[in-house]
């Protein structure tokens, strides 16, 4: 029995029991925060042709924020008993996360029998983002699956199919929409057909079937553009909570916008030929920036950064340093940092750890890339890319399936 077999023997029971605990125990138990109740209520009201958009945005209870197209998609839940519908929703999202983990690992050359599989499953289900997605019962698990499928189809040149998971998520919430920049810069128009066609068709069907679709446009859309001061780890959310001046908010947003654009330019200029590395790294940078700079960033959105974290197995990864994983701890940990002897410090760490983690991650990625650029320019090797010699001289695609390899541009 080799080392990998021993690790697999240890990790599979831990992974399986952690999945069961998070799904069947913690999630079925539920919590004070219940993201599913407004979804279920909207589904029931939709099929009964009564008002769907009933939320009072002055309250801090979870609100129903899906557009009419999303309401149509979740409507079948309204035909089920509440407890059955909620448990089914939890299980579907847990299965979605497991399928996404499988395809993500396959993209990097690892299969079910690899030691990476139980380690990845255990790590994912130990995080806050997966745990609270299931406990609070929201749709992030399926959004994560859609993200992985979108990237997978782009890599496999199944461009028509790439638009399907994107279109289904846009029909519910457009959190993945910024990733359409990838087919755009390559002038691949096929993904856009389903990405916009699916939500348009679903909206056309749902609009006449809804009692109050106009309220989504009049009331919900303006609310989505606001920065609330609770459960919001974006810069603007912390600014409202702590009463920061507008100039500071603008300055911080501007600074991290520059950091993000610098990283994306260097990734596109020097790494776009390595499509797996480029797509997974750039998608993580784009989505992290969206969470941090947008009007609403919640900690459990961090599931969508998993593809970037997975690049650590690649030799040219920007995640091969300890500050990157200190950042990951900030936005992934399930630990609570409230402190009895140091109350104010503990509360600040609890409220800000996600914001600091996202911020540090963007800083680390940019710093690594800029340092590589400066070193390569000094050495006069920019024409060979940014990788230092100890990376460039190694096998660049070790462990990556042939179908995901892209030869360097001539």
From TrEMBL:
GO MF term set: hexosyltransferase activity
Transmembrane segments: 6-28, 88-104, 134-154, 160-185, 192-210, 247-268, 322-340, 355-374
Keywords, ordered alphabetically: Cell membrane, Glycosyltransferase, Membrane, Transferase, Transmembrane, Transmembrane helix
Domain of life: Bacteria
Classification via InterPro entries: GT87
EC number annotated for this UniProt entry: 2.4.2.47
Places the protein is found: Cell membrane
Enzyme class (EC, first level): transferase
UniProt keyword Glycoprotein, yes or no: no
GO CC annotations on file: plasma membrane
Topological category with respect to the lipid bilayer: Multi-pass membrane protein
UniProt xrefs under Pfam families: GT87
Similarity field: Belongs to the glycosyltransferase 87 family.
Protein name in the entry: Arabinofuranan 3-O-arabinosyltransferase
């Amino acid at each position: 029995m080799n080392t990998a077999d021993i690790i697999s023997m240890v990790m599979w029971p831990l992974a399986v029991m952690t999945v069961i605990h998070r799904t069947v125990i913690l999630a079925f138990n539920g919590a004070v925060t219940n993201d599913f109740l407004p979804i279920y209520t909207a589904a029931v009201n939709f099929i009964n042709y009564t008002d769907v958009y009933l939320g009072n945005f002055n309250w801090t209870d979870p609100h129903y924020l899906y557009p009419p197209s999303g309401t149509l998609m979740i409507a079948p839940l309204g035909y089920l008993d509440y407890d059955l519908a909620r448990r089914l929703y939890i299980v579907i999202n847990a299965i979605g996360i497991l399928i996404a983990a499988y395809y993500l690992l396959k993209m990097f050359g690892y299969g079910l029998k690899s030691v990476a599989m139980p380690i990845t499953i255990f790590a994912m289900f130990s995080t806050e983002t997966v745990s609270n997605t299931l406990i609070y019962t929201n749709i992030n698990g399926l959004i994560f699956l859609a993200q992985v499928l979108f990237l997978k189809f782009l890599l496999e040149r199944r461009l028509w199919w790439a638009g399907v998971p994107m279109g289904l998520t846009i029909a519910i919430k457009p959190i993945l929409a910024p990733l359409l920049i990838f087919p755009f810069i390559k002038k691949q128009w096929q993904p856009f057909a389903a990405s916009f066609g699916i939500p348009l068709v679903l909206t056309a069907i749902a609009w006449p079937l809804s009692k109050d679709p106009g309220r989504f446009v009049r009331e919900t859309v303006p609310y989505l553009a606001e920065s609330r001061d609770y459960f919001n780890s974006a810069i603007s959310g912390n600014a409202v909570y702590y009463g920061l001046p507008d100039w500071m908010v603008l300055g911080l947003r501007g600074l991290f916008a520059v950091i993000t654009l610098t990283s994306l330019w260097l990734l596109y200029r020097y790494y776009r030929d390595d499509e797996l590395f480029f797509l997974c790294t750039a998608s993580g940078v784009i989505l992290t920036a969206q969470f941090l700079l947008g009007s609403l960033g919640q900690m459990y959105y961090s599931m969508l950064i998993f593809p970037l974290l997975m690049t650590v197995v690649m030799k040219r990864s920007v995640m091969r340093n300890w500050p990157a994983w200190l950042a990951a701890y900030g936005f992934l940990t399930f630990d609570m940092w409230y402190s009895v002897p140091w109350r104010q410090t503990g509360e600040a760490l609890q409220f800000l750890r996600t914001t600091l983690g996202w911020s540090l991650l963007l800083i680390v990625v940019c710093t690594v890339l800029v340092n590589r650029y400066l070193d390569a320019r000094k050495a006069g090797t920019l024409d060979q890319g940014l990788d230092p010699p100890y990376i460039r001289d190694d096998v660049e695609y070790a462990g990556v399936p042939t179908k995901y390899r892209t030869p360097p541009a001539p």
